[in-house]
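Listing S7. Sequence submitted for prediction.
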Amino acid sequence: MKIAILVCYNPTLVNFRLDLMLEMIRLGHQVVAVGNESADKWEKILRPYGIEYRYIKMQRNGLNPVRDFFSFVQLVKLLKKERPDRIFTSQAKMVLYGGLAAYCIGIRDVYPLIAGLGSVFLAGGLKGRILKKILMCGYRLSLRRSPSVFFQNQDDASFFIDNKIVPSDRIVFLNGSGVNLEKFTKQPFPGTFGFLCVCRIIRDKGVLEYLSACRMVRKQHPEIRCMLVGPFDSNPSALNQGDLQPYIDDGSIEYFGEQTDVRPYLAQCSVYVLPSYREGTPKSVLEAMSCGKAIITTDAPGCRETVIEGQNGSLVPVKDAKAVAEKMLFLYQNPDICAQMGDESRRIAEQRFDVWLVNQVILRTMRIGNEVDSIVEERERRNICPSDEKID
């Protein structure tokens, strides 16, 4: 079969979907990845894996209806030319336009992933309510023909069920996007106690709360390291360099910018912190868990799925920097508990979030290949370990 993977944020092709695409290829299928960045760059990245790449001009966060219309027309033409047997879509615009484009040319086997509701559903005010209504109508149209729709947490699924967007019998749950346990291996406890947050630099990830908590912690214990890694973004809730600079100048944080490999930074931290307002299931937390880190995150949809309170970390209220700081100080003052939580994080990652187990659910649901039931056994037999390449 020919399988199309549609995204509108290209780094996810390697960071989130490479293991899945490689398994599809191993099962004998042709994979075409569709994204919104230069074909010159991404053909070079994906071709060595046997993955074809196609470019679509689409703004990930834009709200220009004229531009979106032309993107939709381009997507219809592309799918009509490629005629894939199965389509996997993720991220709001590709879920919306990919589903509608496929419907226009008679392709029914479209399997969308709702990996979080995004900033539109967190926005307030009249504009936020209008955009939310428009997006909900778009989802109803694009998802109505999909045999199954993937979700990463119960809260998002319940929202879609309650608002009659997707019936409950077509929902399939995934344990996040999974994590490659061979790539993100358990790391020793660092010599200097440190905290780390890896995310896009936007308000909705809880970056401001993390900055404030780090300032509180560092005032009491200047020997603690507080690190931040991640790119600036075009999201409506994006922050800029000026928002970070006061915290950099007073030594509250060390900011390392965008990185292609986060593992060296995970190796330097004792605790991973993500005070996000809402997620599907945060990939960065799964990577930290796989590396054996205690977790501090919010009691919010998607985030709460990663923590068993008191076992591998702690949950804090959303937008509560003081609560974040209190948990950070507790783990600093109790390094033995912190190390035990890190061990538990790795155990949970192995049991629930192994990317091979997550991909097995996706492949079964999409009815791809005859060997799906033996993916894990095949991985162990052949010692398959995908490339270490990571693109941000």
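Caption to Listing S7: primary sequence and predicted structure tokens for the chain studied. Residues 341 and 378 are 31 Å apart (CA to CA). Confidence is low (pLDDT under 50) at residues 371-392.
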